[in-house]
């Protein structure tokens, strides 16, 4: 572990004023007609995702995944969304990473998408299941060699030793990945979040933010919706 000196203090109130002055959303915001919302949340999510892509939102497929260990300790990180279907919202990572360990202990997660330019947030909460190993292997093999190399170079989230050289490790792993293009990695894992709640949030400049939450209804496969106070 490396120790660092304490950062110098800034003028009292300066950070608060700076933060208060920052914009959160684009100047022009879309509207959200909840009466026209599809019957299933996946359909609305895909509609909103395409809209975000068309609006030029950077990395609209990046999502914050929040997990909790059995101890109750929580953590969150950004990952890339891999798929959305009846199976849920799918993301990938290393089985032995902190998120993988959390999900082994407590297979529940919250996903949070935020698309500032269009003032939209989508929150998905649900049970997490691992996708079949052959699906994870196919996903791993479809990744570019540099991405596979980055994964193979070292154990994700483990501290690096001072003697570890990242560039060297990446170069060696890239040679290895290129030499074995058909070798899947057993640790590469796809997780699917099967939603028990999906909430769509549309910002409004006059603060009349529109929120619509889907939850499974009593009829299997169907959803009921609620408007929520902003
Ligand atoms: C835009 C972006 C995309 C990322 N995509 C992934 C991903 O798909 N899978 C992954 O394991 N980590 C991804 N990461 C890195 C994670 O945020 C995180 O550092 C890593 O998964 C380790 O998290 P953990 O220690 O909580 O397991 C991404 C980071 C960013 C900023």
Automatic annotation (TrEMBL):
Manner of cofactor binding, per the entry note: Binds 1 FMN per subunit.
Record: residues binding FMN: 77-82, 99, 121, 156-157, 201, 211
Pfam families: PNP_phzG_C (PF10590), PNPOx_N (PF01243)
Keyword Flavoprotein included in the entry's annotation: yes
Keywords recorded for this protein, A-Z: Flavoprotein, FMN, Oxidoreductase
InterPro entries for the chain: Pyridox_Oxase (IPR000659), Pyridox_Oxase_N (IPR011576), Pyridoxamine_oxidase_dimer_C (IPR019576), Split_barrel_FMN-bd (IPR012349)
Pyridoxine 5'-phosphate oxidase dimerisation C-terminal domain residues: 188-230
Cofactor: FMN
GO molecular function: FMN binding; pyridoxamine phosphate oxidase activity
Family (UniProt): Belongs to the pyridoxamine 5'-phosphate oxidase family.
Official protein name in the record: Pyridoxal 5'-phosphate synthase
Organism: Sanguibacter inulinus
Taxonomic placement: Bacteria, Bacillati, Actinomycetota, Actinomycetes, Micrococcales
